[in-house]
Design brief:
This protein is 53% helix and 19% strand. With 292 residues, it is α/β, with parallel strands linked by helices. A five-stranded mixed beta sheet has the order 3-2-1-4-5, sandwiched between helices. The longest helix has 33 residues. It is globular and about 70 Å long.
């Protein structure tokens, strides 16, 4: 596994290095388009996320050594065939956001991004995901994952109310505002609620409101859920979540499992080959011979 998976990861890194050596624009596009295309969809979705996994490394904390967890970056490109069947291609890496984004761009181009009528980039509000979107998918329609924003709403609701029923009622109101008037409607409601509590207040409820407002305000341009629904866009990252579970969660996480850097990359690389249905072509390159 370590040898063959290491070759798969090495192939991915070599492809990224080759792309990075080319100037942005036509040269890179022609390089990717010279490969056999995967699909030509009219609407293409791109997403990325990170998932933590346990390593073999330890960190001293007081008189104890604790397991160090590292983040595996995962990406997926997905599209719908007709009105039913969904397809996706995936990748994973421990690269920095710039190199990971280039690898995801390579995959998206091979999946028909340059020919698609609509390209949508959907992710949570993480800073490195934003870096990937800004650097490599500037022309895509950005969407903040509905369910990720919903988690922040629930966190604020529980900070505002100790009673679960009251928290549920408040969260339901916020979700209703999102559905009816997108992020701008929710933000206005939150700001009115904040003003009603007074500018100098420091209660837990005010801190919860401030936290949610601080999260939503800079991401307002990517929360137009009313328009997204009208255009039939996917607004949740369920496909991305399932990819994280398939690439990392089901194999790298679990009781007693601990991974070296190379082992984690090798295993996730092999899983990506299986999910992408490229295993037969990969084995034809004689990876064990190349690893020798």
């Amino acid at each position: 596994m370590q040898q063959v998976g290491g070759v798969a990861e090495g192939d991915r890194q070599a492809a990224v290095e080759a792309l990075g050596a080319l100037p942005e624009g036509v040269a890179r596009e022609e390089h990717v388009l010279s490969k056999k295309p995967i699909a030509r969809p009219k609407r293409l979705y791109i997403s990325c996320d990170g998932v933590m996994y346990p390593t073999r490394y330890r960190q001293q904390e007081g008189d104890r050594k604790r397991i160090v967890y590292q983040e595996m970056k995962c990406g997926t490109v997905f599209w719908q065939e007709g009105n039913s069947t969904w397809h996706k291609r995936v990748l994973s890496s421990r690269d920095n956001p710039e190199d990971f984004g280039l690898s995801l761009w390579d995959l998206a181009v091979r999946c028909g991004m340059l020919q698609a009528d609509e390209v949508i980039f959907i992710s949570d509000g993480g800073s490195w995901c934003d870096t990937v979107a800004r650097q490599h998918f500037r022309d895509a329609i950005r969407i903040l994952d509905w369910y990720h924003l919903s988690e922040h709403i629930w966190e604020a609701a529980r900070g505002l109310y100790g009673d679960e029923a009251a928290a549920k009622s408040w969260a339901s109101r916020c979700h209703g505002l999102l559905e009816a008037s997108s992020g701008i409607g929710l933000l206005r409601y939150l700001e009115r609620s904040r003003r009603s509590r007074g500018g100098g207040s420091t209660s837990a409820g005010v801190e919860a409101l401030d936290s949610l407002i601080g999260y939503l305000r800079p991401r307002l341009p990517i929360t137009d859920y009313v328009e997204y629904r009208q255009r039939g866009f996917v607004i949740g990252s369920g496909m991305m979540e399932s990819t994280c579970k398939q690439l990392v969660g089901k194999r790298l996480k679990g009781c007693g499992r601990q991974w070296s850097e190379g082992g984690a990359l090798a295993m996730s690389g092999l899983i990506a080959q299986r999910l992408n249905r490229t295993g037969e072509a990969f084995w034809a390159t004689r990876p064990l011979h190349r690893a020798a």
